[in-house]
Amino acid sequence: MSVRSRSLAVAAALLTGVAAFALQARASSDEAWGEFRAGVETACRAAGEGVLDTTGITVDPFGSERFGIAVLQGSEKGGAARRSVVCIYDKAARTAEIGGLLDLGGAEALPPVPPIASEPGDLAAPFGGRCAEECEASLSTLSDGDREGVIDLPARIRRTLAGLGDVSTDGGTKAALGVARLLADDPGAEGAPLAAPIAAQPGETECTLRWFGFLEEGAKTVGSHRCRIAKAADGTVSLEKLTGERLLVHLVPLTDHLSLAVGRSFLDGQPERDYDLQQPLNAGNANFGNLVGLATLSGGQIHLIGGAELGMSPADRDFFSVLTLAGS
Fold first, then answer.
1. Cα–Cα separations (whole angstroms), residue 191 to 2, 178, 267
2. Which of 42, 148, 242, 295 pairs as cysteine with 226 (C-beta 3.0–4.6 A)?
């Protein structure tokens, strides 16, 4: 992977967003995830028919980026032994494969996974349950891929940090890394507490972009830029990167500790500025487009943290970026 290719993709490592909180969009998203889980169950039950008389199935509500995941429980074919089987469902091919018979000891008693988004607060479970109605509305209006990506962001950070080992850092990188650890609920995390940056002060400021998990470098300071913090009459905070590869995001309610940062990346001369479910990529350059991530305030600085990448194939699951805006 070339540095240039990574540079073109980095805007997408920060954020992707929404324009409105619509009940219709929430219903559509819930319906799509419901269809996905039903598809996983049907395919996995069929795949397990030859080895198991299935009496129960637990479906991971979202799965991974590429696969659905389920655990079948039942009686082994031709016997009375209680066994379990792990099933992997290919989201693209819509086919399922199973592993071998397992004795998980009590697997029959596994509680079923409740339908995601069917009850208030369920959408916020990945953020420790610290999510009110506004947060649920924010998440449910994202596209499926963006929603899955932002929910997975704390886990993405943990995966990346697990592979970094000891990292020599300057003060700014150490602070950004500390914020990421706090966001990911790392037990050893230290630093100023996190707060949603709803009281950010308007004005231009310096901002620094850092990558974590980039190739073999661990932590890398990419460059310093100019950013702008703005506040609308209704109190909505917007953040804009003014130099280099551009981005414009709006901060949407999520939890007391985090805001959902939503918007778009672009180059000078590209007209696209807003998140658009119908046109997620900028015309003529698929490395820029819709962005989603998390924003938090710590130690008087705003940190925008993202991980989903545009224009990268295959996607890098062990990478995240932090854009730090000084002096808020």
1. 34, 6, 34
2. 242
